């Protein structure tokens, strides 16, 4: 498992948050406790004068029978609805994915670009840090920065038997430290508990129904909420959709023998997306794609060369690193998330193939990472170290023996191309993770919701396969699938057609026709899918602003869902 190398640039003192009790008064008619209101206070005003922050208390353990159960604080940020001339539609909660990504940071930095002006005008956009994440009672195993630094392996994922042994030894050390020093939230970090928190937050903002948009892992949170609280579903969008059965238990006996990060088939779909990169690059030709011309075979030769002899590169700040086999595969997987960045990725591998000077390759490498947004990841180091694992391992069934990970990594690489090891090893710490699963929800995921759910996906999503969206649309009887004929992880900013459908659903609940497929407006390397899509895109009066906003949104989503790879 690859873990963060960056030290936090933010501290908890960056935010003024006011703790609240979860319940404030009693309904005179029913005798039941009513949720308190959230005491919103201005925050981050130097960035955006409209932002408000708050905290809300929720039970640590929803299964506790104690009269006064322990509570933890959930951190929130709100961008208030901007249109004062129309009746507001309530709050729109947003989860950017991960698991482990901060919804506070997401809305703080990307809220002003999300959706369109009309949606932002009618909804209060609310980002929240799920329990155990960032500012919400962060999960920690009590490690010092020195201990974390020592635990970081010198590879993105293990390739050799020696590296596999090193990774497994690191996992044992971390699991032992977490078992000994882990804080109280570690046993209560299932997505089901986050859904229960979300229902209390819905009540605290005064909404009868939950309006929610969840990207990537946020789709699993949305599907879990829809099944735990089906009669409280308002307008709910899941985009970049995880198969909830594969995420939790797997099908049949697979949960006992196959790691969750293998059975999700992100390895297979990363390879399918990379094959599309090769196809479109060659179609664009050398004038459109710098790596054009038999690109698949050339890429294979390049990574074999890097496996035998890493390429030294020098970053713009003078740092010397090596472009190793595992690093180039990780960067390739990262690049597949965002097809508008494929031209820059093509430049990187073209420069590396041609063995340009280390400074030139390093400059391009840094530029590409800036386009991904990964250089801006800044959560607290100790929390970032464990947040992804704490959720994943608590939610999912995995083999109890660590030996299954190298076996599946080998098999997946053989069957599905370059990404089997990259994805499979991401869950290896789960073999002996000390956190509890007892509060998780494992289905069935088939409840009929009060209002329809919008399910969205691209055809070539490397991380959350299109098959996951089809599965959710089949499982949820009151849902509708929106397909983008395009490339990348999640749909925002890729297709004006799909974006507008999402906006109208959020504004008035309207659904697209059954089997609706939207074209990506601009294919990678500026190969237009069709003339009409291009014409629609260019005829928008706000085309420039929309393109800029879309870039910021895609960057924020990519950043949120690649933290574990950084």
Secondary-structure blueprint:
Layout: E1 23-26, E2 33-35, E3 41-42, E4 52-59, E5 71-79, E6 90-95, H1 103-110, H2 117-122, E7 123-128, H3 145-151, H4 161-181, H5 191-204, E8 210-215, H6 217-228, E9 233-239, H7 244-248, H8 254-257, H9 260-263, H10 266-284, H11 295-308, E10 311-314, E11 320-323, H12 325-336, H13 342-353, H14 358-372, H15 381-395, H16 404-416, H17 420-424, E12 453-460, H18 466-475, E13 479-487, H19 496-508, E14 516-519, H20 531-539, H21 543-560
Structural notes for this entry:
The model is unreliable at 1-31 and 530-544 (pLDDT under 50). The protein has helices spanning 103-110, 117-122, 145-151, 161-181, 191-204, 217-228, 244-248, 254-257, 260-263, 266-284, 295-308, 325-336, 342-353, 358-372, 381-395, 404-416, 420-424, 466-475, 496-508, 531-539, 543-560, and strands at residues 23-26, 33-35, 41-42, 52-59, 71-79, 90-95, 123-128, 210-215, 233-239, 311-314, 320-323, 453-460, 479-487, 516-519. The chain is built from 21 helices and 14 strands. The protein starts with 22 loop residues before the first strand and ends in a 6-residue tail after the last helix. The protein is globular and about 65 Å long. Helix 5 crosses helix 6, helix 11 packs antiparallel against helix 12 and helix 13 (342-353) packs antiparallel against helix 14 (358-372). The chain has 566 residues and is α/β, with parallel strands linked by helices. Strands 3-4-5-7-6-8-9-12-13-14 form a 10-stranded mixed sheet, with helices on both faces. Strands 1-2 form a two-stranded antiparallel ribbon. Strand 10 (311-314) and strand 11 form a beta hairpin.
């Amino acid at each position: 498992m690859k873990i963060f190398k960056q030290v936090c640039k933010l501290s908890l003192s960056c935010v003024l948050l006011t703790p609240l009790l979860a319940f404030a008064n009693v309904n005179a008619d029913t005798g039941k406790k009513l949720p308190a209101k959230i005491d919103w206070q201005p925050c981050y005003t130097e960035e955006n004068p409209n932002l408000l922050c708050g905290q809300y208390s929720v039970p640590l353990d929803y299964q506790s029978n104690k009269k006064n159960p322990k509570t933890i604080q959930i951190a929130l940020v709100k961008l208030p609805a901007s249109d004062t001339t129309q009746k507001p539609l309530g709050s729109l909660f947003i989860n950017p994915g991960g698991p482990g990504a901060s919804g506070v940071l997401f809305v703080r930095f990307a809220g002003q670009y999300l959706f369109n002006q009309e949606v932002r005008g009618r909804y209060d956009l609310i980002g929240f840090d799920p329990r155990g994440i960032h500012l919400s009672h962060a999960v920690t195993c009590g490690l010092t920065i020195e201990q974390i630094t020592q635990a970081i392996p010198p590879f993105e994922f293990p390739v050799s038997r020696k590296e596999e042994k090193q990774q497994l030894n690191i996992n044992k050390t971390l699991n032992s430290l977490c078992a000994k020093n882990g804080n109280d939230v570690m046993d209560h970090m299932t997505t089901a508990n986050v859904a229960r928190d979300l229902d209390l937050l819905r009540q605290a903002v005064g909404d009868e129904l939950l309006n929610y948009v969840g990207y990537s892992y946020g789709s699993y949170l949305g599907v879990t909420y829809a099944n735990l609280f089906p009669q409280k579903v308002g307008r709910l969008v899941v985009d970049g959709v995880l198969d909830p059965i594969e995420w939790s238990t797997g099908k049949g006996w697979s949960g006992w023998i196959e790691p969750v990060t293998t059975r999700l088939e992100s390895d297979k779909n990363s390879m399918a997306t990379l094959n599309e990169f090769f196809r479109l690059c060659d179609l664009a030709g050398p004038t459109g794609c710098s790596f054009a011309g038999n690109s698949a075979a050339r890429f294979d030769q390049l990574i074999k060369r890097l496996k035998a002899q890493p390429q030294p590169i020098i970053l713009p700040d003078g740092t010397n690193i090596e472009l190793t086999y595992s690093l180039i595969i990780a960067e390739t997987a990262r690049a597949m998330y965002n097809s508008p960045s494929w031209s820059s990725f093509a430049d990187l591998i073209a420069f590396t193939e041609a063995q340009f000077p280390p400074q030139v390759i390093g400059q391009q490498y840094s530029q590409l990472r800036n386009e991904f947004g990964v250089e801006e990841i800044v959560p607290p180091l100790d929390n970032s170290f464990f947040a992804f694992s704490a959720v994943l391992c608590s939610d999912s069934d995995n083999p109890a023996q660590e030996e299954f990970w190298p076996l599946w990594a080998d098999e997946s690489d053989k069957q599905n191309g370059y990404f089997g090891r990259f994805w499979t090893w991401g869950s290896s710490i789960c073999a002996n993770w000390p956190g509890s699963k007892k509060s998780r929800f494992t289905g069935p995921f088939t409840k009929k919701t009060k209002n329809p759910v919008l399910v969205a996906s691209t055809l070539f999503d490397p991380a959350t396969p299109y098959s996951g969206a089809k599965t959710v649309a089949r499982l949820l009887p009151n849902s509708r699938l929106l397909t983008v004929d395009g490339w990348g992880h999640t749909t925002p900013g890729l297709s004006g057609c799909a974006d507008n459908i999402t906006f109208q659903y959020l504004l008035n609940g309207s659904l697209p026709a059954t089997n609706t497929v939207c074209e990506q407006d601009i294919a990678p390397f500026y190969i237009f899918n069709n003339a009409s899509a291009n014409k629609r895109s260019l005829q928008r009066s706000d085309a420039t602003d929309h393109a800029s906003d879309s870039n910021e949104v895609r960057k924020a989503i990519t950043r949120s869902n690649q933290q574990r790879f950084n």
